[in-house]
Design goal:
With 744 residues, this protein is α/β, with parallel strands linked by helices. The protein has 26 helices and 24 strands. Helix 4 crosses helix 5 and helix 23 packs across helix 24.
Length: 744
């Protein structure tokens, strides 16, 4: 059913978006934008969200339709193309407002004047007026923090600092900084986000940015089976598409299973940028000469982003392309990393590899337990295949994990060297057999299993190379040493890899985050040169202290690993119930820190008050789809529900909640060998990680100046660790002043 749609309010800064993205027209007489839309159309839902975000009034058939704000989630990316707007350069510049006018960025040879730290206080006056650069943009009135920060950041750039670390609290407007700084110095920029959902948020707010995602989000142009490895078939499919004779009833594969990847360099696709010979015979893709409209969806998006001032993507994708070198992502003047406190773990996670028996079941036709239940004769097949590997060359050999003990802090060097050697041989054996299965085209689910197999082999290749090049930087751990079902490989330090993998993207880099408790530790973690680094910290919050109290006087039982007995969970359950009674009729969240604590705490609460489990407390499983459904329902329900989850400790927007309960201090688990080794090497790192997680968890329910919410820390060890700490290193030394001010 068609309906009348009208948008009013301060629409000037958004006029291009309303026209280009939503097809609205300007009504000069009514001073508003209008159109007709189908009530069931996704575009109407997105328009409603957009108007909520930017405080525009949306009327449907004359009645106001938007009253609150919705946030993007990763699940919104199922329709990601809807966020992409094809704007001309003139239109993009119009949305950006004034461009340039400040001194150009220094060349790579200019040196910085040495390490420097700047603390920004509430009383500091801006060094100069930045307001003219905000005119005509969606950020009409700069925030005080932005007025203070922008001149300092630009001075740092022009002094030649390579690394600029900016710590500013939630509500400072970091997305505006990502837009303003590149346009003020007229610099081509990569903008990196931690999550795809935040990437989509940027695109919604600033559609002149050019966004790219992984190949799996785009369709191939060719009508061909996913994972095709036959060069003649691929060439035939290309000709059919070019001549318009392709079978349109046949589905195209996703771009990550397209012939340009699976057939190797021999396949020359006309929908891919041409290759140019570079210096010394090296080749690179010709992004600048490519006609975007003549390319496939993936390479078209990538070519468009290469030509744009703003190239925005999530960190994982940028690292994946960074691994390919400059042919895919040439170095730009600026790299801006948003939510930069995630970078060390993101870089480590890029190289980390998990192996499980489930992987072997899926990739190498090992009968699962369900298969054995259905057909007991398969039990002997499973047992034979999963015998510990002792070397072999064929798929018929046993493929179970070799009996190599987990790395411990006191493992003998000879045992470690032997373990590395065996693991390299086994991983090569595994990669060969999975590769053989790929070539035989024997995966039933070509879209899922085949894609998984390709990615798995690629990860194994990276891991093998790392173990060969720098084995001492790696640890592995198994769930059990006698008959392991799960193995995790992790790098200890990522500083040396960070430059080639990520930092080379920008000659100068800006790292922005609300929580970098110890910038010095952060620098060391990422391998940043101190004499080319400036640290800028905003040590106040624009959120009123009275709106965000942190209460520590009400405590539960000890949740340390050794102290988690039945009595401790009983005490914790009683404290939680007391808080829930104090907030009867209000919504809240419980942050248990670990899955084990969550499970046992729920059991203890049920013993104390079974009705509250049934009627008020909400949980979710680890399934991403189910989790997102539960979170969405929790956000919109008018009931005084309380969500318990280990997932929402960071990044979750809980502004619809009135309170939060932290069950346990978020110390990194010392049972993890990587964590243990890093802590032993630098105890300050351990304190910094804990403090950062603590500040993040305490920032879930107050997300703007007008939000109010109480955070309860009921871990009885909090006061000791915060004020005294082990070895004279209290957590208080690692948190910003605005956090300390809120503690009651």
């Amino acid at each position: 059913m068609m309906t009348e749609v009208e948008v009013t309010g301060n629409t000037y800064a958004f006029r291009k978006i309303l026209k280009a993205r939503y097809g609205l027209r300007w009504n000069r007489r009514r001073k508003s934008f209008y159109t007709r839309m189908d009530t069931e159309a996704p575009s109407l839902r997105r328009l409603r969200d957009y108007c909520r975000e930017f405080r525009l009034t949306l009327k449907i058939n004359g009645a106001q339709a938007n009253t609150s704000y919705d946030t993007f989630k990763d699940s919104d990316l199922d329709d990601f193309d809807s966020f992409l707007v094809d704007l001309s350069q003139d239109e993009a510049n119009d949305l950006l407002g004034k461009i340039g006018g400040l001194p150009p960025l220094p060349g790579p040879a200019q040196s910085a004047p040495g390490f420097r730290k700047i603390k920004v206080t509430k009383d500091d006056d801006p060094r100069w007026d930045v307001k003219p650069w905000f005119d005509g943009t969606r950020f009409q009135d700069p925030r005080v923090e932005q007025e203070q920060l922008i001149p300092i950041i630009l001075d740092a750039l022009n002094l030649g600092y390579t690394n600029i670390i900016v710590e500013c609290p939630t509500g400072s407007g970091k997305s505006a900084l990502s837009m303003m700084i590149p346009k003020m110095v007229d610099a081509d920029t990569y903008v990196s986000t931690h999550l795809k959902g935040l990437q989509a948020q940027y695109m919604r707010e600033m559609p002149f940015m050019s966004s790219v995602m992984g190949r799996g989000n785009y369709d191939c142009k060719l009508k061909i089976e996913p994972g095709c490895r036959s060069l003649p078939l691929a060439e035939e499919a290309l000709i059919e598409v070019l001549t318009g004779t392709a079978d349109q009833s046949m589905k195209s594969p996703k771009a990550h299973l397209a012939p340009c990847r699976t057939c190797g360099p021999e396949f020359k696709c006309d929908f891919k940028p041409k290759t140019n010979a570079g210096v010394g015979g090296a080749s690179s893709l010709d992004w600048w000469g490519a006609d975007q409209d003549s390319l496939c969806d993936y390479f078209g998006a990538l070519a468009g982003a290469q030509k744009s001032r703003y190239f925005i993507s999530n960190t994982s994708y940028l690292m994946a392309l960074g691994q390919a070198g400059g042919s895919m992502l040439p170095t730009r003047e600026l790299l801006i990393a948003d939510e930069a406190h995630h970078l060390p773990n993101a870089l480590a996670g890029f190289y980390a590899t998990d192996l499980s028996i489930r992987h072997l079941e899926r990739l190498l036709d090992v009968p699962s337990f369900d298969d054995v239940v259905s057909d007991p004769n398969l039990g002997s097949v499973r047992e034979k295949l999963l015998k510990p590997w002792k070397g072999g060359s064929s798929i018929t050999s046993n493929i179970g994990f070799p009996k190599i003990p987990s790395v411990t802090k006191d493992m003998e060097p000879e045992m470690f060297r032997m373990g590395v050697s065996v693991w390299i041989s086994y991983l090569e054996f595994l990669a060969d057999n999975i590769g053989r299965k790929i070539t035989t085209d024997s995966y039933a689910d070509k879209e899922k299993d085949l894609a998984f197999a390709y990615n798995f082999v690629s990860n194994l290749g990276t891991l093998i190379n790392q173990l060969e090049v720098d084995p001492k930087n790696w640890v592995w751990s198994a769930d059990q040493d006698d008959e392991p079902t799960y193995i995790k490989f992790q790098p200890i330090d990522i500083g040396e890899a960070a430059e080639d993998l990520f930092f080379r993207l920008g000659r100068q880099r800006i790292f922005m985050s609300a929580t970098i408790p110890s910038p010095e530790v952060y620098m060391k973690e990422l391998g940043l040169e101190s004499d080319r680094t400036m640290i800028i910290s905003v040590n106040y919050s624009s959120f009123p202290t009275g709106n965000r109290p942190i209460v520590t006087s009400l405590t539960g039982g000890k949740m340390s690993y050794s102290g988690r007995d039945e009595r401790a969970f009983e005490q914790t359950a009683q404290a939680v119930l007391q808080i829930l009674n104090l907030h009867e009729g209000q919504k809240g969240i419980i942050l248990p820190h670990t899955n084990e604590i969550e499970s046992k705490l729920l059991e203890a609460i049920e013993l104390e008050d079974p009705e509250i489990i049934k009627n008020r407390i909400i949980t979710h499983t680890k399934d991403p789809t189910e989790r997102e459904e539960v979170l969405s329902e929790f956000e919109i329900t008018p009931d005084p529900a309380v969500l318990i989850s280990t997932y929402i400790g960071q990044g979750y927007d809980g502004k619809h909640c009135d309170f939060a309960i932290l069950i346990k201090m978020p110390f990194p688990p010392l049972g993890d060998i990587r964590t243990l080794k890093k802590m032993e090497a630098n105890e300050e790192w351990y304190k910094s990680e804990t403090a950062g997680a603590l500040v993040q968890m305490c920032g879930r329910v107050v997300r703007s100046k007008t939000d109010t919410g109480i955070t309860y820390i009921i871990d009885p060890t909090f006061t000791f660790h915060y004020n005294k700490g082990i070895n004279g290193q209290p957590l208080k030394d690692y948190v910003p002043d605005y956090f300390d001010e809120a503690i009651i």
